[in-house]
Structures are given as structure tokens and as C-alpha cells.
Amino acid sequence: MPRGLPEVVPPMSSDQFRKYGYKVVDWAVEFMNTVNNRNPTSDVKPGWLWKVVPTQAPENGESFESILNDLEKVVCHGMAHWQHRLFFAYFPAGNSWPSILGDIFSNAMAANGQTWYSCPVSTELENIVMDWCCKFLGLPAFFLSTYSEPRSHGQGILQCSASEAIFYSMIWAREDAVRQLRPRFPSKKDDPVNGKTRADLLNMLVAYCNNECHCCVERAAMMGCIRIRKLKADKKGVVRSTTLLNTIEEDMAKGLIPFFHCAIIGSTGVTSYDDLMEVGPVCQKYHIWLHVDAAYAGSAFCCPELAYLKQGYEYVWSTNINTNKWMMCNFEASLHWVRYRTKALAAFAGPKWESTTYQYPNNVPPDLKHYGVASSRRLRAYKLYCVIRNYGVEGIRRYIRNHVSLARLFEAYVERDPRFELCGGSFRFGLVTFRLKGYNSLTQKLNDAINASHKIHMVPSHFHDKVVIRFALCAEYANERDVDDAWNAIDHHATEILHEAQEEFKNDRAMRDTFVQQRKHDTYFDYFPHPDHAEKLAEAQHVAKNLAKSLAEDALIKDADNTAVDGSWGNGDPDAFASYDKKLRDNPEMVRFNFDEDYLHTDDPQLYKVASMLHLAMLQSTVANSPESKKSKSRHSTDV
Ligand SMILES: Cc1ncc(COP(=O)(O)O)c(C=O)c1O
């Protein structure tokens, strides 16, 4: 037996760990406190890092000091800053101080909770946190562990991602379907001629999902060799029960067996949500496993005012919610519940599960490794436990409500600007999806322009063949100024893009309305930087926006718009413009009078002056830009 082996010297001592640990925490605090001084996205090109770090691993260890020294160059330079105030892309990447600290604890302990015995706190804490969440999110009690609800047959598990949760649910449902089918179809052994193999049964199955579902649903079906049909959602992104019913009947007529439907609450593209009261009873009637993907929006269930979104959850067999999206917990922490844990165990725990150890709770809780692919399990629940304890449920509600209110503010900006349209469902959670009216290429260009500067970030999506831009509240402490800055950037780029497009689509009738709106926008808002009363700017803006709306209905302006038949003044209808022009010239007092009487509802003389100025400027500019006016400039004065 060899003796006297040299002692292994670690590259980092515990004292050094303490030293660098403090440094790293200081760095993290400084980084987060100053993240807004950086750009939210990086301008690096693919492959840049290969030129920065060596292509071979170092043969001999380096000091941690030197690793810290090139942190900025190696990591930060190629980072997208998801916590930045102007990062409005994707969905939030949840994070918070307690979550980071919780993760440090679990990492320090580095235990593997693959069974209850291998690390009892791992299984127990996960059960407890899952039950806490189930209760404060107001989900049905049948998802609770039997510690909380003795009559429950359910189980909650913390998975790494929504994609995994959905994949597992599909496989559990598939196994359940095969078991249900077996008595109806004898095996080949029992009936060599008409009997069906397991493969035959699997081949009969068909799954469904809302076509607004995240692509991970289709991927889950591919991985499970499952036939899937994406059901057409309506204009609001909702699968109606008639669509589901008709598809089921069509498929059954072909000899297929529908077994799984993935509904959605908070779709990735437009946060649309299915009505579970509609699809639930259909699934129940046909013994279809109903899964609800609420990866992002599910966190909002903790707000009582949104309880209506959960209606119909009593029909649900499994569901998933990512706390690492909208509950300030960092990766990976996807809540996943199944209504009948035995159905999950039947699929994953292997043939022994029924007969032996898993008599939960009389014996020990079922090992959580049986609800997923990995055997090893870190103490993932601890960081979520820290977040919930530190914020309290009320703190989580405050966070969600702030995002919801800011999304409403943004929505109001879009609604007030006639160049844009809103897309998607009727409740937007913390995401607003919008587009420029007109061709998809305009919205795509707008999105590209917004991102090109790297100062603000949003991502596009598709909704019913339309390119849309997603404005997602992501920063934990997002506020009105962030929304205003985002809107100003959008407004600025939209104006530029529409001016460029006006040339490109000069003779395009379909684009006419969009250009007309842009012209109005120019006319009303060009004068904002110079009002006499700077302190009244905000009110003036408000008044002018109302003016814009009212004037859009004004017959005079409509006449003017009619001249833009081919998307440009040059090709307009000169007769219509001439009559408009004449009306203004002949009756300047009438115009002023109408304005006073009909449009300006204020007693504030200063505000009145600013708004009057805007209005007159608008009229002047409209007239001055007319082809008729240009022609007759030498004959007339342009004073109104
Ligand atoms: C609604 C929805 N479901 C599923 C997913 C996939 O989530 P994960 O990255 O956790 O797999 C996403 C991702 O954004 C999503 O928005």
C-alpha cells in the first residue's frame, strides 16, 4: 500500500476564498449599481472571444487575481445586460439579491439530493417551497403535497426550465395514454393477428397545442416522437373550444387518439391566454391531459385582481411557471406541478416504483429524481425560499403590479399614436406587442434601428403573419422614465423610417394612411422643442395629442388627407387641396374660432397660447406643404 503521498495543495485556500469572495461580492454590487452606465447589448461579432482567450486550457493554474483582472475583457464585453433599465427584450431573466445569496449557500453546500436519504433537506425544502407557491399563487389544492393536503395525489417539482417541464408532462401523458389504451387493444402476444404492439399504440396518439405556444412544445413532441397539431388561435391568440373540438373529431375519425393538449397563459409572442373554462371541459370529455404553460405570466396569479385568469384550472393535469422569469429568482427554477404523481412516476420511475419504496408520505417522499431526466439534484429550492422570505408575497405582488402598470402606460402611448397598432390579447401582463401600421418591413426596420445603437433592446416576433415588436418590462425597478425613454426612441426611429419609406412607397395606396398619420405627427410635434412656456410642455403635449385625435376627425383635415391619394403630396388631388387651402385663407378667424370652441378645453391662458401656437403652426405647415400652395406662392401671402 503506497504511503507518504504528497499532500494535495488546492489552488485556492479557504482564506483566499474569503478574500476573493468579498471581492466578487463587491464587484457584483458595483456592477449592478452601475449597469445602466453600460449599453444593454454588446456590439461584439460572432467568434470575438476566440481572439481574446487562449484556445488551449492553461497547463498550470493561474492566480484568481489574474482571472478577476480580465473579467471585464472576457465576460462583460460580450454580455447582454438583462437587468439594464433599457433592456425590454424577451422576458425578464429573474434575479435579486436574496436569490444570488441563496444560490451561494447551495453552491457552498454542494449536496446531491437525488434521494431523500442522500440529502433530506433537498427533497423536503423543495416540497415545502412548491406548496408555498401553489398556495400563494392560488392554484388548485390537488397539486399540493400530502403534507399540506392529505387528500392530494399531486406533486410539485422544481425543474430547470419550462421546456423540460413541458417535455416531461407530454411524456407522462403519453405513458398514461398507452396504459389506458392497453385494455382496449390486446397485445401481439395475446392476439398475434389483431394485437397491437406498444409502438402501434404510440403511433395512434396525437397531441395538440395552441399555435401561439413556445417552440419548446413542438420540440418536446419531436423528442418524444409524438405527432402534434398546432391549433389555430383566434385574433387574440386564443384557441376556441370549437377549434379544439373539431380537430379532435376529425382526428378520431381517422383512427387517431388525442391524448394531450398544451394550453397557454401568457404566450411568448403577445401574452395571449387561453380560456381554460372553454378548453377544459372538452379535454375532460375526451380524457385529454390538459397542460398549461404559464412560464412567464403564471407569477401574476399571486395578485387577487388577476384571479380570473386562473378560472378553469380545475381541469388542468399539469402546469409550469418559471420563477426565473417573473419572480426575481435566478436560473434555474421552473415550478412544475402534476395532479396525479403516480402517472408521472409510472413513466419515469421504472418498473419498481409501484411495488416498493414510494409510499409517500407514510414512508418517505418520492425521490424527486423520478420526475425528470437527471439523477443528481442540487438544492435548487433554497434560493427561491430566500426570495419568498425576503420579499414576502406582498413584495412579489408589488413587483408584478409595477410591471403591469408600466405596460399599461406604454400601451397608452401606442394607442395614442395613430401610426402604430397594438397586437395580441386583451391583458398584457408586463409585455406590450405593437407594430407600425403597414408593411412588415417597416416594423422590422424599426426593430433593427432600435437595436442598432445598442442603447436599448427589444426583439421582434410574429403574430398572425404580422411582424410585431415586443416591449417587455424586465428590470426589477423599472419606472416611468424608462418607459418614456423607450417611447421617445421608438417615436424618433419610426419618424425616420416613415420618412425614408415615403420615398420608397411613393405610389403605394396601401401605405397611404400610415403616411398621412406620419405627416400629422410631424405637423403637430415639430413645434414642441420651442414653445414659449417650457414648463407647460407636458400639458401642451397632452393637449396636442388630443388635438391630433380630434383633428383627425375634422372634415377639413380629411379633405387634406384625400389629397394624399398615392402616398405623397405631389401625386395628390389638387382640387381637394385647393378647396381646403381656400377655406383657410378665406376664413382665418373661423379657424381660430373653431379651434377655441371645439378643441381647446382649458382655462389656462399660457397653455391656451402654446396650444394655439401649435394649432396655427400646424395649419400653416399643412398649407405651406401643399402642392397648390407651392405653385401659388408668388400669387398669395401664406399668412393664415
Ligand atoms: C410561454 C413560454 N413557455 C416556455 C418557454 C421556454 O422557457 P425555458 O427557457 O424555461 O425553457 C418560454 C420562454 O420564454 C415561454 O415564454
From TrEMBL:
Xref: Gene3D superfamilies: Aspartate Aminotransferase, domain 1, dopa decarboxylase, N-terminal domain, Type I PLP-dependent aspartate aminotransferase-like (Major domain)
UniProtKB keywords: Decarboxylase, Lyase, Pyridoxal phosphate
Record bears the keyword Disulfide bond: no
Pfam families: Pyridoxal_deC
Cofactor(s) required for function per UniProt: pyridoxal 5'-phosphate
Superkingdom of the source species: Eukaryota
SUPFAM superfamilies: PLP-dependent transferases
Family membership: Belongs to the group II decarboxylase family.
Official protein name in the record: Tyrosine decarboxylase
